[in-house]
Amino acid sequence: MKAKVTFFPIGNADTTLIQLDSGKSILWDYAHIGGEKHCDLPAELNKRVTKDTYEVVCFTHADHDHVKGMSDYFYLKHAVKYQDAGRKKINDLWVPAALFLESRNDLCTDATILKAEAKYRFLTEKKDIKVFSKPEELKNWIQKEGVRFEDVAHLIVDAGMCVPGWNQTVDGIEFFVHSPFKGHVDDINVVDRNCAAITVQAIFNNKAETRLLLGSDISSNGWRDIVWVTKYHQKNVNRLTWDILHTSHHCSYTSINKEEKGEYKTSPIDETKWLYEVQSFERYIIVIPSDKIPATYNNGNGEPVHRQAYNYYKEDIAAAKNGQVEVTMEFPNTSSPEPLEILIGDNGAEINKSNPSATVYIKREQSPRVG
Amino acid sequence: MSDWVDIPESFDITEKELTLSKAQQALLAVNDLNYVRYIKCARRNDGWEFIVFETDVQLPQKGIVNDIRIKERIAVGFDPQDEIIPEVFALRSDFPRYLPHTTLKYFETPKSLCLYDLPYSEVKVTYTSKVFIERIRNWLRSTALGILHQDSQFLEPFLNESDGIIILPADVHKKPYTDISIAGEHNGKPIFIVDSGSMASSQHVVLTIGADKHVHGTFNYKPSNLALLSTILKTIGVTFENSLVEYLKVLHENKALSKKIIFNIFIPKTKTESDRDREIDHYCFITDSSAEDIGIQIGMWDKVDGILGQPLGFNSGQITNDLLSRINIKTLMPQYSFNKPLARLANKVPHKKETPKALAIGMGSLGSQIFNNLVRQGYGQWTVIDDDVLFPHNLARHILASEHIGKPKSVSVAAIANNLFTDDPISKGENFNALESKEASKLAGLIKQADVILDFSASVALARHLAHIAHKQKRIVSCFLNPDGTDLVIIAEDKKQNHRIDYLEMIYYRALITHDDLKDHLSRSGEKKYYAQSCRDITTSIPQECFSIHSGIAAGALKKILETKEEHICIWCLDTGSYEIKIYTPLISKIHYQKTSSWEIFYDDVFLEKMAAYREQKLPNETGGIIIGSYDVQRKKIYLVDLIGSPEDSEEYPVSYKRGIKGLDQKLEAISIQTADNLRYVGEWHSHPKGCSTRPSEDDKTNFEWIRKILKNEDLPPLSLIIGDDKKHTIYLETMK
Fold first, then answer.
1. A340-345 and A324-327 as β-strands: parallel, antiparallel, unpaired?
2. How far B279 CA lies from chain A's nearest CA (Å)?
3. Residues in Cβ contact with B665 at an 8 Å cutoff, skipping those fewer than 6 apart
4. For B549, which DSSP code?
5. Interface residue B510 vs chain A (CB under 8 A)
6. Is A355 in Cβ contact with B33 (below 8 Å)?
7. Cβ separation of A208 and B62 shorter than 8 Å?
8. How far, in Å, CA of B659 to CA of B653, rounded?
9. pLDDT digit string (tens) for A242-258?
10. What is the pLDDT of residues A19-50, one digit of tens each?
11. Beta pairing class for A3-7 and A340-345
12. N or C: lower Cβ tally within 10 Å for chain B?
């Protein structure tokens, strides 16, 4: 079975589209930032997904670089004003439990709307949604909202299991949930939202069983916890192997070593070193969803992109196993970035690096209007 | 990290120093395309300009069978005259050696990639720099995955350049070469032709060397002297020096040192290491030196005062590359004389396939062209009969040429066919008239030897004659054009000859009167042609393209038909305005046969069913009409083919029927025109009511006498058919009792 995974040049933001041979489309975050040289995300998505529904849209967490513009693009059930023609429907909405439980007040508009939509599906309709992690606090919140926990329990997905309804053989893909797990969500007041984000390994049903690790914005501490838990439950160690790594948090050093950025290169903590260097397969692909890598080593405000992190990915990981590292805003070049497509087939994953001929273009793009 | 090599004999230049427009275009493309990064420009001493760049190769994680890397360094070179296709070199020093579609231009490195299997003149028509570079990138990806060389392609040759061509007898392995002469030239290179014959008169001797099996891949650069040949041969397990020394010793002993040596090298090649199927490359290398000279050059012996020394104690280890390099050679690509296996290969006729022994009668325009189409395929073993000679007007459409004027067509076409091949003759010409009784035993003998009789004569008389004499002996297939040459007809008996050619011909006529599209088949103009039933009439004016088109179809169709056991009738109609061809295949049904004391009667299920349907429509009344058919008076045969239903003015009652005449005239006239008088009135039919027998009533007998009276005018017998329930029927011929 073939599949395609597409990453979009949208700066320090995440949107990943998974398209299966069966015609099913799964979208991992949606963030239409609209910055300089960014692609027109809704247009690029609609070029690829021509039907009106995504089978799954997963918002890994509610930061603006993962949700921005979603209320303009999707058909939302909870309010008529989000239901005009041309909006894409969501068959199944996946959100982390933290969306409901966060006590912080800095949610952006789209995150607030997403929260309302998720709540409507979860507590009112009690369908077409999956909420990740099963903390005590979620139970309390559900009851506080006047809903019986048992009525919605089937919509809650635990870490350490595969997302129900998706089977590698039958559906062509399955998703093993690594996070959020209990600790992340319960300590919501002290743990940052990134750790409560949805992190999964997707396995495709091709001969090579290609594995895609979707890191969302998880930090090295998050990875550390995941590695510990996974190693503790030994049987799932292969659930942390990968052919394609969606690096977490836009080339931030924090996802390699939260404590130490490094001068020239970030040194990994033991757990991230194991994950990045040992758990990868030959000729893997690392995708860094970020702005272009800066020439300097100190970008002032501490936010990604960090060249130190890039150097680690490029020099320490990629060189070892004939791997490739691509940055979304640098692909195929920095002057006009384009969506990065990874083709998945029986020979594993490969980045589409063909310069398309005119006939390929005309099949892919509508011609501009004529007078 | 990999090392890179440079283009030999080249030096770096700046981008601005590029002078060739294709090189400048390539530079622009390299700078504009994604996944391609410019490195530098260079110029070779011969003026070629090169653009060097690095490219990403799109590779998956697995399935990589050749060591192509994610990044490769490539140089593309351009000919100052733009006459030679741009050369593409992979500059990585450890770029794999034995890859399909690579050439060694400078021996080991860099490797040259072969991107097109078309001449540059063809490539130029659509060449753009970007497409060319993208093709290089595709080449790298496909080669990495081992999918560049399609299974349907021949394996790569060991050498792909030569100094000329040598045409060898097909039986080269059996006979020694006697002499080599230059027969002409091709693309400025000589074509040598070899005669084989007796060893004594030979100016040449042949040293044949077999190499080890090798996996096909990189083309080698053609060697220009024996040292280079030796180097190449070492890569495929041949120690050339040993073979040379041993052979020179033999020639010395046989006092044959004055002869020149042809080195005949056979190189088996396979697609993969484990592959069992293999192809064999064959190359010839010729020298201008005699064997004696070669011996002297390599230090094997010396000649002092005209006396040649002995090769005592000399061994091949003493031969250095330096010595061998003194002997120049020419690399010649062998081609073999044309023979039937080659003809079959070129025409997709399976090599071992049994093709029939054909007895072809009629070598006119159509026959000769069909024959020509089939013998050139190595198809069949032929005896061709015709009593005609070639006249000047025949040249308009016959395969024979003016030198054959006045000579028998059969003998001439057979000679031409036999001359195509160097192996056994494919045909034999017989110059006689197959219809003449004095040739009957000869014809019978030839029929006996054949597998199939192909009647290209377009003669009704001959078709009937063959139907008579070859029945239950050999399958007959008739093949002819209509008078305008627009339509081709093939009528073939089944292998068991249950469907006789004469009745199949009747079914063909029936198609002409029952199928609207065919109504003008024998008469396009709609007028009756009394004397021309086929294209045999010398005054017939038909364009040669009709013969060419139809003889091509006929050749292909005959091959297919002869593969089957079944009977066939096919009519191909060519629209000479649009050149569209439509095909009609009339329904063939079971044939019935009855014999009276003096006549044989033939009819089929289609005929009977039509009559039964008319009866059914009119029940409980009786109905009737007339029978359309044909006579072979000579052989006393009557063919019942079709019928005309009850005319409007007929009187139909439950117990009687009286046939009217309204419309009959027009219908009979149409049948006469449409079939060129091959179908006509042959008698009457009528039905009996349900539950009644087909025995004649008194009225029927009276009617029969009326039929007798009217047919007696033509000396033909009266015929009446009565049909009853369940298609039961009785045919009354000559008498009705």
1. unpaired
2. 30
3. none
4. H
5. no
6. yes
7. yes
8. 11
9. 999 999 989 999 999 99
10. 999 999 999 999 999 999 999 999 999 999 99
11. antiparallel
12. N
Catalytic positions of B, written as ranges: 622
The HSE-up count of residue B514 (CA atoms within 13 Å, CB side) is 19
Cα distance between residue B275 and residue B123, in whole Å: 33
Contact (CB, 8 A) for A110 and A71: yes
Identify the CA nearest to B694 among candidates B719, B721, B655, B718: B721
Would the CB atoms of B60 and A345 count as touching at under 8 Å? yes
Q: How far apart are CA A165 and CA A91, in angstroms?
A: 12
Q: Closest approach of chain B CAs to the CA of A355, in angstroms?
A: 7
**Number of cross-chain residue pairs from A and B with Cβ atoms under 8 Å apart:** 57
Residue A116 in this model has a pLDDT that exceeds 90: yes
Question: Beta A280-288 vs A324-327: how paired, if at all?
Answer: parallel
Which of B38, B53, B62 should be substituted to probe chain A, the one whose Cβ sees the most A Cβ atoms within 10 Å? B62
Q: What is the pLDDT, as a whole number, of residue A190? A: 38
Q: CA B231, CA B221: separation in Å to the nearest integer?
A: 11
d(CA B359, CA B637): 26
pLDDT at A174 over 60: yes
Q: In what order do the strands lie in the sheet with A324-327?
A: A173-179, A199-204, A211-214, A242-246, A280-288, A324-327
Q: Do B63 and A348 touch (CB under 8 A)?
A: yes
ipTM for the predicted complex: 0.89
Q: Note whether A332 contacts B134, CB cutoff 8 Å.
A: no
Q: Please, what is the end-to-end C-alpha distance for chain B in angstroms?
A: 108
Residue B105 is predicted with a pLDDT of: 62
Q: How many angstroms separate the CA of residue A4 from the nearest CA in chain B?
A: 13
- Phi then psi for residue A106, to 5 deg, are -100, 20
Test B60 with A283 for CB contact under 8 angstroms. yes
Q: Which residue has the tokens 């009853």?
A: B724
Distance of alpha carbon B439 from alpha carbon A204, whole angstroms: 80
> What is the Cβ-side half-sphere exposure of residue B251, based on CA atoms within 13 angstroms?
27
Q: What is the pTM of this model?
A: 0.72
**A16 Cβ contact partners less than 8 Å away, ≥ 6 residues apart:** A5, A6, A7, A27, A28, A29, A214, A246, A289
Low-confidence ranges of chain B (pLDDT < 50): 526-538
Chain A interface includes B137 (CB < 8 A): yes
Instruction: Kindly report, residue by residue over A296-350, the tens digit of the pLDDT.
Output: 887 666 788 999 999 999 988 877 788 999 999 999 999 999 999 999 999 999 9
List the one residue out of A314, A293, A291 whose CA is nearest residue A37: A291
Of B34, B56, B70, the CB nearest to A322: B70
Mind listing the pLDDT tens digit for each residue in B689-734?
Answer: 999 999 999 999 999 999 998 888 888 999 999 999 999 999 999 9
Residue B397 and residue B417: Cα distance in Å, rounded? Answer: 17
CA B211, distance to chain mean position in Å, is 34
Q: What is the DSSP letter of B376?
A: T
Residue identified by tokens 């230059």 is B182
Rounded CA-CA distance B304/B507 in Å is: 90
**Whether the bond into A180 is cis, omega within 30 of 0:** yes
Q: What is the rounded CA–CA span in Å between residue B537 and residue B514? A: 27
Separation in Å, CA B342 to CA B221, B347, B421, B555: 28, 9, 9, 19
Residue from B383, B346, B386, B338 nearest B365 by CA: B386
Q: DSSP string covering B85-119, please?
A: PPEEEE-BTT--SS-TTEEESSTTSSEEE---SS-
Q: Strands B102-104 and B111-113, how do they pair?
A: antiparallel
Give SS3 for B237: coil
Shortest Cα distance from A129 to chain B (angstroms)? 35
